[in-house]
Fold Amidohydrolase.
Amino acid sequence: MSNVLQHYHYLHEIPELGFQEFKTSAYLAAALEQAGFKVTRNINQTTGIVAELDSGVPGPVLALRADMDALGHVIDGVACARHTCGHDAHSSVVLTAAEEIIRQGMVKKGRLKILFQPAEELGAGALAMVEGGALDDVDMLLGFHLRPLEECTLGQAVPAMIYSACSTLEATIKGVPAHAARPHLGVNALDAAVMAVQAVNAIHLAPGLSWSAKATRFLCDAGVTNSVPDLARVCWDLRSQSNAPMDELKAKVIRAIEQSVAALGASAEVVVLKEMPAAEIHPEMTALISESIVEVLGAAGLTEAKTTPGSEDFFHYAVQRPQVKAGFWGLGTNLTPGLHHPEMRFDLSSLEIGVKIFKTAVSKVLG
């Protein structure tokens, strides 16, 4: 009997934010050790975990990766962590697949590695795992993500999810305080921030490119309503379907912010808070996942590859270690109303499908 629902229900009730997945990682590591894996905790001094199963026979090294962190929400005025992106499901599927793979003696050559990664939502977890050496000996890497209903339904799976690059910029805009009755003596940081938002909105890249840049946070408060505020903070979310245009977009956004606020006598310090690269997927891994999906769900269960404006820090692995053949697929789950929605829900029967697809892929490479 599969343990996937047991694992899911436990992990779902202990959501933890990025790099704080202490209970989550302890549970996963203990389960892997009990199953018979050699487990290394605290990768790169984080909550990351690497487990290994060595067949003792020469062959490739295949790694399965799952993320562990929950999302931060403010619900009814209360800050909380909640699993609204399905990372509890990802961990449950990969853990269950690992348990069944070792129990059924499926690894007959090479080595299987299991990566449980922290802080995907922060865009920093994959980099921490790479810096900790988790991929130094890996030949192939597979990851996956639950898909929203509009992309993929229950009983279907996507062989390649082509994610976009994403950068989050924050500008700290500084003006000069003054009494609201004497605005000419100050520099209004709120006015400057508005100018910066408008300047970014006026940016253009080549029409054939797929990209966006939009302000997503605006904080400005002098503490009273009759003073000119001297400080504002604005965040922008930048997206690009491929990696190459992102550098151009970032440069234009930073220039637009700095020069627009300077026109009013203010200054801006712009920092990059988070970056995730666009998808780099190896065709051999897409073929492997396609074959595995068809074997589990039949030909009708295999969709075409799909493009998404979403981002995934999984692709730091492929960019930082280009010698690794990386594949990333999507699981249909009838997920509504959407990822990152506070009330996100999906059909739990899909988790068993995910386990079977991973097991099939492993058997094809290491069996």
Remarks:
- Residues 244-262 form the longest helix (19 residues).
- The chain is about 30% helix and 30% strand.
- Residues 8 and 364 are 26 Å apart (CA to CA).
- The longest strand covers residues 325-335.
